[in-house]
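Worked example 2:
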Amino acid sequence: MPVPVVLVHGIRTSASMWRHQCEMLAAAGHPVLAIDLPGHGSRLGEEFTVAGALAAIDAGVDALGGQVVLVGLSLGGYYATAYAARHPDRVLALVAVGSAFEPGGPGLAGYRLLARLIHRLPDRGLRLHTFLVRRMLPPAGAADALAGGVALEVMDAGLRETGTLTPLTDLRAYPGRVWLVNGAWDHFRLHQKRFLHASRHGTLVTVPGAGHLVSLHRPLRFDRVLGRILAEVDAHPGRDQPDSVHGRPG
């Protein structure tokens, strides 16, 4: 039976950002579930915390039988990595997308300051966010990103909580296979070599022509990458991998 897949979204968006992948995976026979993290989508208004985010992932894993391939993008990638380190027996493989940047220091502080400034706008930044999403993504990707609502209130708490995570330590702790998938134009891949070297069984994949929201920006290219990953997990669910190998989609 094809392996189950849990999908974890990025900040300010929701499970709806995975609508295309949910359809693709379901058509291929994979049990699939895209979850909403606290403060996002169906959970707008809830407080965002590390514990709450990990509990949301845990509930999603439970819903699909207790062992899954865990896929997270951006914010979701950091929490998927943290979850895999804490529950390695429940994660058959980890796919961390657009989350190969250490979340701390001046970079995070600057990002939080910008988020606070945008939040002071009369509409809390909704028009700006919507404009940028529609500008950067193809129409279908923009529609999926916006369909579940925009989590206007979650930025500062989400960034603050994520700054407490230790993804390099988590990658060292997780014994399973890891795929780091980044768009070629993604600013969040700055530390990808550190993340790859921290992974015990890691593969780095760069998607040509894609930005940070790679699954929305270049969905068919991302589908091919994810399809190959799942085919490998299906074929060799327990096989040990080399310590690190580099990959690029064809």
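The chain has eleven helices and seven strands. The radius of gyration is 17 Å.
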